Amino acid sequence: MKSWRIFLVLVGLLVVFGSGVQGGMAQGNSDAAHACQTGGWEQLKGTDGTLFADQDACVRYAAQGGMLITRTLPSITVSVAPAVVSASGEPGFTISGTGTNFTPNVWVHFQVQFHGSGVTWSHTFTADSQGGVSFNFVPFVAPCRYQGFDVTAYDTATGQSVTTAVTTVPCG
């Protein structure tokens, strides 16, 4: 009789605590699924560094027990320096800079669009193992008449891009 009581108590504990664990997991998956919706997957990554191609990939990752954290979005810093256009000898400037928070070890495509000129430069650089990238458009030198431009960096793995506008440049 005593062994039946122990058995029933153990079964009762299993039902109570087992239900709580399953309920908690289901709620966590639901929260994660909601976090992935409406573009949320673009701002999330797995704690193991997993990036998501779309909303479904994000939901699947969370449903399989993966933990989601906020992803720091890419950013770029642009530098300009006075230079001389070699073909004409007129004053100009060079464009270089750095980027952070890109997908590690993938191509990052940079495009420079000069305001009002219709002139575009583009080049692809590779992000390092930490997601950093340095870019330098030398030997290209822009003439001073191109006063203002946008630099857009496009992460080829995630499709995310970031644009920085430069409105004045140092020309001599």
What does this structure look like?
This protein is α+β, with helices and mostly antiparallel strands and 172 residues long. It has 2 helices and 10 strands. Strands 3, 4, 7 and 8 form a 4-stranded antiparallel β-sheet that branches. Strand 9 (149-155) and strand 10 form a beta hairpin. Helix 1 (2-36) runs antiparallel to helix 2. The protein is elongated and about 65 Å long.
How helical, in percent, are the residues?
25-40%
If you consult CATH, what is the topology of the largest domain?
A: Immunoglobulin-like
Query: So what's the CATH class of the largest domain?
Result: Mainly Beta
Number of strands: 10
Uncertain stretches: 6-27
State the order of secondary-structure elements, H for helix, E for strand.
Answer: HEHEEEEEEEEE
Secondary-structure map:
Layout: H1 2-36, E1 44-46, H2 55-63, E2 68-70, E3 75-84, E4 91-100, E5 107-114, E6 120-126, E7 133-136, E8 142-143, E9 149-155, E10 161-166
Antiparallel strand pairs: 1-2, 3-4, 4-7, 4-8, 5-6, 5-9, 9-10
Helix pairs in contact: 1-2
